[in-house]
């Protein structure tokens, strides 16, 4: 980490103080005032309701800080893009933009030996330099290492998304400057423009996902047993336990829905400035929880297409296209890469910087004590890879063929999601135990329900 730390430490002290001031409100604990409170009427059936509902407004500073951090990362991304384009792409492409078969090892030494190790180190000194303790901000730091790592691999192996991306340094810088990939036109070698109808659709989806995050987080944070909406459970969210009881699977389904809304909203915000400028970006999700027809359809076409495209071009295609391996090996390699990527992101998310410790006691602050178990993400994604590998032989079973024909789409999709639910808390459990959900709630509406027996004191 010394190389990246040295780079960060050389920045002027005044710049450091200015940047730290942008992230002064760490939003680790709920301190928002109650903006509105109303009585919840008694329900005619079941005797529920009758309490008070407090409404907390979103913090604008939450979204401002995410944008500030994205801008900082874009500066680093552009610097890496210049080096990769000039040293790895330009010398090893023909006039048509195709990768030249060369015996030179320089691109691989530069990429795997220098650039990727440096960028993987960068988030840790950035966290220390900016005094970032908020886990949502830390999570957003994954943009820098993941984009550079996989796009550098693309450049080395000739698997970029479009010839237009590598055609000029300007195009390549544009490619690196965004969280969500632009839609490129291979004929014109330019970015596709967004239509008013497409923009309106994106805004509508963003609004729905914003409301979805508000409702789901309010529900999970307000449960009698926190994060356990479907009754008491002995399942430890930060363990290697496998969920198999019906209420645990139901809880994990709620986590999956919450993660879908959070990730969809985050990616939508990340691409919003590009859409406002009039350019079309790829959709991050295609309604995967309720419209998927198979594990391949879920993971390969509809769930988190941003990461999927990175893994496809930075892991699957280099193995299959450049390495000559089978598609099954490519799928396994892509899911292994996904597991390692997420385990790495978790190390950034829960990194213990010097600012995590109380100056007087020397102990970790309460919001910084959680440490995830190692390699849980790799286990989760290996399980998902196994479901994809087994998809073809299982699809030949008569009962599966009958279900694929006769069951409604939403039922089939739910059954597909069910294959991942026994391990879903391997992913979302750490977010809950590590305070991520609590901190993300600062950016959306939060509804806090006080039952009738405990009304009289409102607050968070």
UniProtKB/TrEMBL annotation:
GO biological process: lipid metabolic process
Wax synthase domain sequence ranges: 285-345
TM ranges: 66-85, 105-130, 199-221, 253-273, 329-351, 371-390, 402-427
UniProt topology in membrane: Multi-pass membrane protein
Pathway(s) annotated for this protein in UniProt: Secondary metabolite biosynthesis
Stretches assigned to coiled coil: none
Keywords linked to the UniProt accession: Membrane, Transferase, Transmembrane, Transmembrane helix
A cellular-component GO term for this protein: membrane
Keyword Signal: no
Pfam families named among the record's database cross-references: MBOAT_2 (PF13813)
Tree of life domain: Eukaryota
Record flagged with keyword Membrane: yes
Compartments it resides in: Membrane
A Gene Ontology molecular function term of the record: O-acyltransferase activity
Family to which this protein belongs: Belongs to the wax synthase family.
Protein name per the record: Wax synthase domain-containing protein
Record organism: Grammatophora oceanica
